[in-house]
Amino acid sequence: MSVSVIIPAAGKGERFGKKKQFLHYKNKSVLMYAISPFVFCDEINEVIIAVSKDDKNQVNDYLKVANFKKKVSIVEGGLLRQDSVKNAIKCSNKKNQIICIHDCARPFISKSLIQKAIKKCITSDAVVVAVPSTDTLKETKDLKIKKTIDRDKIWKAQTPQVFKRSIIENVLFDLKYENFFYTDESSLVEQAGYDVSIVEGSPLNIKITTKDDWLLAKAIFKEIYND
Ligand code: C5P
To answer: Domain 3-224 maps to which CATH number in 3.90.550.10, 3.40.50.150, 3.20.10.10, 3.40.50.300?
Structure first.
């Protein structure tokens, strides 16, 4: 089994105020922390990063410094995350039967969790790494609570998300879904009626979206790298 990894990294970081994938901890970008564990998985034989045109040179420079032994390519991203993912899938090696997608702003993913998710995808249509909700969730309208959702059934989706190539290609490029907007690829795969399994992730596998997330991320970096 061989796997292509897609890293959408063409976001503008509107909620953060700048591109969080290029924030640095100790001279290394969040993007490179997010990519490295994939490069060191034997099951993975290509990594494709989708970046905006303006960032291509910068990411190329990062890759030169990292000097990975594995092929890491850059493709141009699109207007939406889903366009960036589609561009990268089009450029991927069709011989790889599994596609794994990971947000560039999740720098704390571990090699063991990646491998667990890939292994699970051998017997599933698709796999989402997720964590059980520890908060009680409220459905609201105009800042009034309409109902409380049964927490035991709620999981928070993270990435990586792993798919059989034939399934994700069928769904993403189906004209029926062309005008759908989705924040992760598994939503569309679920909608199309496929089985999407969960692999339990880590609460530390956070996505850096806001400045508060960056405060938390710096604390996690410090703990992991023993500073
Ligand atoms: O905006 P959000 O945090 O959901 O973005 C998730 C991921 O999608 C990020 O890794 C971001 O860089 C990427 N993205 C992209 N192309 C876009 C928009 C977002 O690759 N046009």
So the answer is: 3.90.550.10
